């Protein structure tokens, strides 16, 4: 449990806010229901039950976006009804609501939710004077302090979200080429294995290695080699499907994960990429080629076994002369080689 919380920031926020919300609001709900204030008591109870349901949904599905939006809406409506019913004593709930919204949903959605709450309170105060604010001066003071709290929370939440997104990108992306790194590759292959076992979804991988890449570094320097790697990644992406995933898991070694791919599709994709590299990849010394090994995911095998089979095909392609394809044929347990 704690491992999931450490790895998933939004889940930890939903869980924390859920605990705080349930523990903080439940006593008020009980007190108001017992004292006969049924409207506010019911609103409090709905908020508590909605919080529990959203937290459980986030834990079961791993989806934190929908529960966040749902809770932001429920909390905003509930806080508005409470403030209208209790007047000044209910306005104190608006400040934690602002903080909650900015951490649960995107800054844009949080601004819309906060402005909607304030607009509803002001509209009710103008239509029924004396119910929410005791005077116009008090209303203006409340709006000014809310605006200050909202701006400061927006800045903090926006910077936190931006920095978190940047860290997530750095954690899964190769800094040179922009392809996903080995850590991301391991996770994606595990997901593919799970998809194969649960839904019998077909997956293929193409292990690719640039031919004679060391000679480029030795003759023209690492800067020239780095540029070839960057150009290679751009070329593969331009000639792959949007749903395909490209990973760099070695110096000049790459892996392309192809969802919903059968044997013919894997062979066709490999042939297309081989020709695209022949025609489009140039280094300081001329044309750069690639060797490709491929394998389809088999039922009940691990991702490491799958990767090892593709790597063995790649090794054979290089041993057979490079600039060629070797795809394992799962039907006969052999490999098929294509120039």
Beta-strand content estimate? 5-15%
Order of helices and strands: HHHHHHHHHEHHEEHEEEHEE
Provide the domain count. 2
Largest sheet, if any?
A: 6 strands, mixed
Structural class: alpha+beta
- In helices, the fraction of residues equals 55-70%
The termini sit apart by 50 Å
The unreliable regions are none
Shape: elongated
- Give the strand order, joined by hyphens, for the main sheet: 2-3-1-6-7-8
Instruction: Give the overall pLDDT as a whole number.
Output: 89
- Indicate the radius of gyration in whole angstroms: 29 Å
How large is the count of helical segments? 13
Number of strands: 8
Q: Which helices and strands occur, and which strands form pairs?
A:
Elements: H1 2-7, H2 9-34, H3 38-61, H4 65-86, H5 88-91, H6 94-104, H7 107-127, H8 136-172, H9 182-199, E1 203-210, H10 213-220, H11 222-238, E2 245-248, E3 253-259, H12 263-280, E4 282-283, E5 286-287, E6 290-296, H13 303-319, E7 325-329, E8 334-338
Parallel strand pairs: 6-7
Antiparallel strand pairs: 1-3, 1-6, 2-3, 4-5, 7-8
Helix pairs in contact: 2-3, 3-4, 4-6, 4-7, 6-7, 6-8, 7-8, 10-11
């Amino acid at each position: 449990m704690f491992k999931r919380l450490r790895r998933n920031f939004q889940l930890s926020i939903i869980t924390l806010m859920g605990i705080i919300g349930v523990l903080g609001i439940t006593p008020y709900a009980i007190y108001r229901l017992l004292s006969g204030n049924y409207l506010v008591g019911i609103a409090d109870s709905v908020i508590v039950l909605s919080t529990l349901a959203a937290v459980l949904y986030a834990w079961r599905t791993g989806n934190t976006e929908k529960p966040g939006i749902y809770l932001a809406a429920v909390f905003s409506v509930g806080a508005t009804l409470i403030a209208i019913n209790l007047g000044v004593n209910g306005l104190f709930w608006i400040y934690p609501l602002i903080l909650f919204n900015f951490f649960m949903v995107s800054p844009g959605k949080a601004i819309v939710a906060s402005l909607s709450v304030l607009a509803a309170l002001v509209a009710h105060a103008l239509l029924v004077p004396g119910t929410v604010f005791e005077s116009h001066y008090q209303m203006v003071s409340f709006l000014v302090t809310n605006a200050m709290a909202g701006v400061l929370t927006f800045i903090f939440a926006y910077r936190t979200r931006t920095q978190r997104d940047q860290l997530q990108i750095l954690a899964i992306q190769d800094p040179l080429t922009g392809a996903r790194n080995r850590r991301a590759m391991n996770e994606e292959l595990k997901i593919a294995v799970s998809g194969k076992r649960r839904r019998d979804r077909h997956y293929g991988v193409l292990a690719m290695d640039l031919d004679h890449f060391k000679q480029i570094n030795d003759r023209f320097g690492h800067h020239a080699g780095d540029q070839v790697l960057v150009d290679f990644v751009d070329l593969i992406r331009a000639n792959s499907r949007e749903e395909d995933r490209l990973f760099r898991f070695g110096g000049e070694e790459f892996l392309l994960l192809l969802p919903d791919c059968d044997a013919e599709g894997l062979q066709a994709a490999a042939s297309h990429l081989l020709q695209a590299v022949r025609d489009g990849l140039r280094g300081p010394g001329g044309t750069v080629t690639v060797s490709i090994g491929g394998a389809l995911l088999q039922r009940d095998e691990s991702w490491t076994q799958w990767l090892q089979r593709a790597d063995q095909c790649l090794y054979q392609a290089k041993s057979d002369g490079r600039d060629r394809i070797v795809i394992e044929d799962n039907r006969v347990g052999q490999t098929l080689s294509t120039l």
